[in-house]
Amino acid sequence: MKFARLGTPGSEIPAVMDGGKYYSLASVTADLTGDFWSSGGPARAAAALAAGELPELEADGLRIGAPITRPSSVYGIGLNYAGHAAESGSAPPAFPLLFHKAPNTVVGPDDAVAIPRGSSKTDWEVELGVVIGARASYLSSPSEAMDYIAGFVTVNDLSERDFQLEVSGGQWSKGKSCAGFCPTGPYLATPDEVDAGNLRLRSWVNGESRQDSTTGDLIFDVATIIHHLSQYLVLEPGDLICTGTPEGVAMSGRFPYLKAGDVLEIEVEGLGRQRQEFIQA
To answer: Are 64 and 109 in contact (CB under 8 A)?
Structure first.
């Protein structure tokens, strides 16, 4: 199944997508919260859709919001594609490299994004995002991890490289948590619809190709990431994990950084495309 949220920020309507149409889930749930994912919400939504109980939602003119409400945590995994680690001049990490993004960075996939004040190195990162569907702590094995996934999303892990690396104090989160720095969506697809190990990821700036790779280049796959994180922290329903970006970012030195007026598009195969116009804060 595919889930989405449509409407103005703070007033999004939860919906399920079927046959190219949106159907309102307002009678099933107030929103696509962590509780929805962990308490059988997708099954209830499927039953209501099959029974013809969900009214069609007129989507024309409606903003597409992030397909999840604000999570309790947003986790990022750094240098997790072999090609990206190489272009960054880094050896592949021995363990998943964890950083945090502020949960309020999660915005709609097509919302405008402000270049932060003082920024000269705002960068793009197309990523496969994983939404947690059940509380996960001390999982016994990577194979168990897949049972804790609500679904997958397209994510843009926007980054300000000076903030991340030069004035960071050794932590990356300062360069990852600027306003609007985690566009998410346009929809969440449940695990039965996604082959997470074989997805194409692409990005474009002003129509010019930047990234073009697959999740086959991941150093640590989705199951390994979830299992590993669960040994050190508690993953809550609705939490978002950004699993890393492939080569082709501005930090590589091959492309200019983003500036006001640029248009960025990213896409993960089967999970939809985003489009952001950049403005100056």
So the answer is: yes
Mean pLDDT throughout 78-94?
A: 88
Helix (H) or strand (E) holding 82: helix 82-87
Residue 42 CB contacts under 8 Å (≥ 6 apart), including other chains:
1, 3, 36, 150, 190
pLDDT band at 85 (very low <50, low <70, confident <90, very high): confident
Please state, in angstroms and rounded to a whole number, the distance separating the CA atoms of residues 234 and 70.
Answer: 17
Within 8 A by CB and 6+ apart from 187, the residues are 2, 3, 4, 17, 67, 153, 271, 272
**SS3 of residue 134 by DSSP:** coil
What per-residue confidence (pLDDT) applies to 82?
87
d(CA 262, CA 140): 45
> If 0-12 CB within 10 Å is exposed, 13-18 middle and 19+ buried, where does residue 168 land?
middle
Q: What DSSP state is assigned to residue 173?
A: G
Nearest residue to 182 via CA among 64, 66, 267 = 66
Type of residue found at 264: L
Contact in structure between 32 and 14 (CB atoms under 8 Å): yes
The C-alpha torsion from 226 through 266 and 57 to 150, rounded to 10°, is -10
Residue 199 has pLDDT above 90, yes or no: yes
Looking only at the bridges linking them, the beta strands covering 272-280 and 113-115 are: parallel
Name residue 251's amino acid: M
